[in-house]
Amino acid sequence: MPMRLHAYTLALFVSLLSLSGCSGLKLPGLVVPTVHVSGRVYEALLLEDKPIAGAWIVINGSAPAYTDSSGRFIVNVPVPDTDSQTIIQASISIAKHGYLARLIEDRQINTGSSTELEPIYLVPAPNTSSLRGRVVDKTTGRGIPNAEVILFGASTIRVRTAADGSFLLSGIMPESGEFPVQARHPDFLTVFDLQTGRNEQLVVIRNGDENVNSVTLELYPIGTPARISGTVINSETSEPVVNATVILGDKRATTNEKGEFSIPDAPTGQQTLRVEHPQFLTFNENLLINGDPLVVFLFAPGSLPSLPFTISGKVTLQGETNHSGVRVEARRKVDGVVVDVATTTIEGDYALWVPPGTYLVKASVEGFNSAEREVVVRKGVAVTNIDFTLARLEGSP
Fold first, then answer.
1. What domains can be seen in the chain, in order of their start residue?
2. pLDDT tens digits for 207-234?
3. Order of strands, edge to edge, in the sheet holding 381-382?
4. pTM to 2 decimals?
5. Rounded to an integer, what distance in angstroms lies between the CA atom of residue 363 and that of residue 78?
6. Which residues are CB-neighbours of 207 under 8 A, at least 6 positions away?
7. Where are the alpha helices (DSSP H) in the chain?
């Protein structure tokens, strides 16, 4: 809890810094360093650069900034307090009603000096809606900075929250309806309902901008007991393993005919997960339990322990029945190196094999907007349902 309170204190100071325009705030015993990051936002798909005014910008959980009439922005970005200059990754969220919101995570900034970013382009999205909101700690009501917010509609839209937990999602298609939304942060569970383990919140969107649509997403801190569900699979045949015993802390469950299990009031955080079955080697690993569904592969005695895949999902192309040919790549978040690439089937299915680590998984194909999600792969456990919906680019056949 003390570390989490410190994070909220930092977020407050960052907000003050943005208002004051300084590069650091000195208080007795505390210095919060920031660095100026600037750039311009333009409309995409034009022969000449057309600046976008009033675009919402957040970088690495900073206070929000807005572009001026020339499309220019300046953001005071919180940086690590070190004695030497460091190059760090910039997570840049941009949104504006009438445009498709973007989350860019392949830019870098220098912690020792001001950084001018390369131009950022937003794709026009007419006849779409927008959603403003806030991600907060369920137990305290405080905003959670730098949380990832994902909305699943005709296009998958992602941004990260500002220092006060606020966010803006634009380019929502269709213009109205009920949309599933997820929120993720390393210090919090992904579930909204501790009893059911539900990790999506349905949000009703009406035709209009962020003044029409708003929502508050409440997350529980890691360590809060919650229902944890998952599936146990035979690594050689990919068939479900029936009657496997799943042990998590002092809780246990048995898999059904589909290999599924569900444990109410299970411990979360770093926990030892043990899965036993007389026909397989016992799975026994220390994992971060955060509410995400678990997919555990069991190996027969004497088999080579290698998972058939570690990341899988489905890509849907808006307005199409053939979803094949989409390139899905996983690149390491730390250095941007592409580790594995797959191409979707006609149904849109794909599977990647990558070692444990944090990855940015990107789906792209000509004529459609690309989409990207951050995925954490842990030892011995596959990550499934990393799905994307790609919207057709305006003017594409």
1. 2-219 (2.60.40.1120), 226-298 (2.60.40.1120), 311-390 (2.60.40.10)
2. 999 999 999 999 999 999 999 999 999 9
3. 260-266, 226-234, 294-298, 381-382
4. 0.77
5. 30
6. 129, 175, 176
7. 2-20
